[in-house]
Structures are given as C-alpha cells and as structure tokens.
DNA sequence: GCTGAAATTCTGGAGTG
DNA sequence: CACTCCAGAATTTCAGC
C-alpha cells in the first residue's frame, strides 16, 4: 500500500478495536499531536482505508432476537442480479452480504423479529431471484463468540450469563 | 426488553450506522439534551445493548488482502473445545466466530496476508481440533457488498474500482 | 507535523416537573 | 427518576509556521 506507513496502520488497528477513541488519546498512543492524527485520519478516510464507524449492538435490544446466516447459490451474477443484491444489501436488517467462492456464492447475515419474519424473508428471496437461485439455505446463529474486532466482551443470544472480565476502556 | 423505550432503540440504530456521532448531534436527532443522551447511552452500555465501538477498516490497508470464510464441523462442543474456540476468537486476524446450526456448526471470518498464511492457518486449525473436526472448509470472500451496517460505501477486495456514489455522512 | 487559540463538545452537579 | 441547564474541563478544528 503506497503512502501508508506503520503509524497509519497502527491508527487503523486502534480505531478498529475502539471506534470512539478521541484524537487526543489516539495521538498519545502513536506519539503524534491531535492535529496530525486528524490529518492522517482524513487521508485514510479519503483513501477508503476507513469505511466508517459503527457501534456493535445486541440485536435483541432492537427487537430482533433471531440472527440467521443465509446461503444462496446463484446460477450467474449478471448486472440484473447485482442490482437485486444491491437492494438486498440496503435492507436495514441485513448486517453483511458477501460474494464468495464455494458451493454457495452468496452469504448474508440478517436479523429477524421471529421465525415467521425469517420465513417471510426467505420466501421473498426465492421470489426475487427466481430460477436463478439454485439453492437457498438458512442457519441460525446460536452464539457469537466474537464479532467485529472488539475484545472479549462477548455475549450469548440468551442474554449474557458470561463473566464480565474486562470492561471496555475509553481512556 | 424491559426499561428500553423507542428513544433508546433510535439511539442504538443511529449509533450503529454512525459510531462516531457526537452526543450533541445525537441529541438533536432524538430531541434530547446531550446530558440525557449520555446517561441513556451509559445505561445501554451497562445493560450490554452496546458491545463497543469500531471503525470498519479495509483489511488490504493492513496488509491482509485475503479474506476467508472458514466452516468447521465439530463432533461436539465440550468445555475443552470451547476453550479452543475462545482462543481462536482472540486472534487478531479473526473478525468473527459464530456457533450456528446446520451442517457445519462453526463459522469464522479471517484476514490473511496471502494464500500461504491461509494455508498455515487451516493446518493449525486441523491440528488444534484434531479428530473432533469432522470437516474444515474455506471459501474466499470475492466481494463485500455490505459490511457492518454502514451505508453503501462498499468496496472490492481487489481495490475499489466501483463508482463512488454517495460519500459517507458524519453530521 | 507542530503550535496556539477559538469553536465545539463533554461532563458532573444543581435544579425542575 | 428522567430531564434540562449551566459552568468548567477536555476535545476538536483550523490557521500559520
């Protein structure tokens, strides 16, 4: 990667594990003034190294206790299909959507209010892709041992009975 | 969810799509003073609704252009296996690790410098789980159409030749 | 990339319904 | 109890170097 040094990468790594750290704190960690960190960060955002910032939310608190992984095998990914996929990606209960190698070429993770909503979603997928979808399969997420680069503040789908070793640090 | 109202959920949704929004801005969006937003947010963090904050980083800029989805079928998930999984989750090239229903009961997403590193990783997985791993399969992520609840600022693994319709908004 | 000063935001406590 | 207001502290931001 041209124009990116180890300082920049360190900034990216820190920001990945603590997205709300202040520029001042970040500056202390990488031995740079807040202003310098800011200008580097602006560069990194401009270059697309930083896609955005997000809070990691337990979907149960948003009324979506059912998380599913959905695998789709598409016969071909033509421009028309891509527009469908783009639309799918824009849904606000879809966390991620990947094109991948392997038996199924699409993987999607979504949140649902209940099994009925998941069923409806699958039905609409079938309708959307029609004969182009050679196979659609859904798995339920039973437990998230890790999500999104955060440290061990893990949780269960059935409401964290886990020991709370280590509060998140923001200082 | 007891003790969580629509205001709280709105805060969670906003924070999920913009993790670095300021309390003042957030307050404007939900018609609350910064101080109130702060106390609600503290409650939400205490309850575990907010797991943490993260920047979404293009792994290529960290020297890991290869992203893989790895499926594992474990014969059983006993306490010993769980400790292995926890260790796996703690690796800093592992983005997520789920237990799930279906043919393979573990799904992992990881970043790698190159194919060799991926191969080594798979080999170490085989060694770690031994005969308990009935199957280990790896797929490559070809394209991320969506990742982590951010809007359409999508990118390709092979360095964004995509049209840049829509800059990320932070205000 | 740093400094310094102005603008903005954060934060904790007192006060209100 | 949840909220607002307010003042001091911290952070962000931008100019100039």
Automatic annotation (TrEMBL), chains A, B:
Gene3D superfamilies: 3.30.70.920, Winged helix-like DNA-binding domain superfamily/Winged helix DNA-binding domain. It holds the Pfam family HTH_24. This is AsnC family transcriptional regulator. One of its GO terms (cellular component) is cytosol. Keywords: DNA-binding, Transcription, Transcription regulation. It comes from Thermococcus eurythermalis. Residues 4-65 form the HTH asnC-type domain. InterPro entries: ArsR-like_HTH, AsnC-type_HTH_dom, Dimeric_a/b-barrel, Tscrpt_reg_AsnC-like, Tscrpt_reg_AsnC/Lrp_C, Tscrpt_reg_HTH_AsnC-type_CS, WH-like_DNA-bd_sf, WH_DNA-bd_sf. It comes from the Archaea. GO terms for biological process: response to amino acid. GO terms for molecular function: sequence-specific DNA binding. SUPFAM superfamilies: Dimeric alpha+beta barrel, Winged helix' DNA-binding domain.
